[in-house]
């Protein structure tokens, strides 16, 4: 555990920043979820009481505490409670499959697990380490707290709480997808998040009058920005019900009812919201009245052309549209670009310039700077770099490398490609998203852009077609969403033939998809990103190809038949 106890040089923590707002706005609503809401003082009273309970159970500074709770005000209470102990929180989304939950627990070895009993049915008790079973903290069984207790953090913290907060800078460990197929834990400190907040808040000009949404899973790092962007400025954090994140129509209604002013979205989710706005306008003949001041994009590459539909309904700057590139390992956001119509009709994805306190270096394979207009890999340096990967020193050393420019500085090797042009960074995709099909290197974004230029295609996502024998993919599948005004029979031979001809006219032969599948919408992961596995399931069902589930069932049936045969032979003997 010693590697995790890194000193907090400034002494400034996220809960310190929150407590400052408690002193300024004690009676202002801090967090709301459906009909639940808490003022800043009530939230602080609850968090403080639960932190004291956690400390009494042995939670210490530098420890890890797993939190697996559904969307509710309780979620925010317990995140703050964990931080008040000096420990860090390890978020686990209740929607994660049991094997991922088990992996996160085994890797992080938390000293305490905060949850509700009904959320633990799939992992309790067989899949948990024996020592952890004794350290469950079921919130429905926790001591009741009077939220109207006036003793909040306007008072001096207790001696025990102060002691706990003196040692560790670690705030959270978020597990992200790994190249090995196993999630890796990214360790991020209070000082890194505070550097992010200090860099962005002046540009965003957000304050206590704002209403933010917590749209994303708290196990996705976009949530860190959503939660603390609100609670360190006296704003209200509106937690979006899970069902509303799945329905753009329902989410649009929530934005109107809650008078949300600051919205954070992945591009995929925002395209769906834009379609809902357009459909509502078509039905009512009136523009949807929103209170939005700023929309921040992150998590995926943004296609500027897909924003045209939004601009038809809302004038430039009302709300501001801001594109922010970022990575979990660099604490959510790295760059900033306020979008304008002058950037439109451009297939590229501009991401702007680095935030204050960060630098972006574009380097070649020899770690040498590339020239303007040349594509290089993005290496990030500065105050927001994560501490490293949990219990993976080798991986940390390979991704957080020594800077060739400053001996005492680290660079994070992002795996993302970009180029400088006219003083701006332009995102060029993932280095590892470049596919290799029959020996040719292919950038899926080029194919997607070409297909979206066809009049019946609104969106396109290209995925390699899996081979039955598990060998390297040899062809591509294009998943298409039709334009709203298209009356063409989407899956007719004529339409599919026309799409193929369109691709042939614009793309090299090895870029041409072999299959075209129309879908009504794109499935998203819990992080709001395109769910490629779900798309392949759709393709398999439409093509009558055995799905992964079918294959597993067939294998189980085969094993069962073998066992029955062996058993029968033993009975005869």
TrEMBL record:
Transmembrane segments: none annotated. It comes from Marinomonas posidonica (strain CECT 7376 / NCIMB 14433 / IVIA-Po-181). This is Amino acid adenylation domain protein. Residues 446-529 form the AMP-binding enzyme C-terminal domain. It is an enzyme of class 5 (isomerase). Keywords: Isomerase, Phosphopantetheine. Its EC number is 5.1.1.11. GO terms for molecular function: phenylalanine racemase (ATP-hydrolyzing) activity; phosphopantetheine binding. Its cofactor is pantetheine 4'-phosphate. Residues 18-390 form the AMP-dependent synthetase/ligase domain. It holds the Pfam family AMP-binding. GO terms for biological process: amino acid activation for nonribosomal peptide biosynthetic process; secondary metabolite biosynthetic process. The lineage of its organism: Bacteria, Pseudomonadati, Pseudomonadota, Gammaproteobacteria, Oceanospirillales. GO terms for cellular component: cytosol. PANTHER family: NONRIBOSOMAL PEPTIDE SYNTHETASE, PLIPASTATIN SYNTHASE SUBUNIT B.
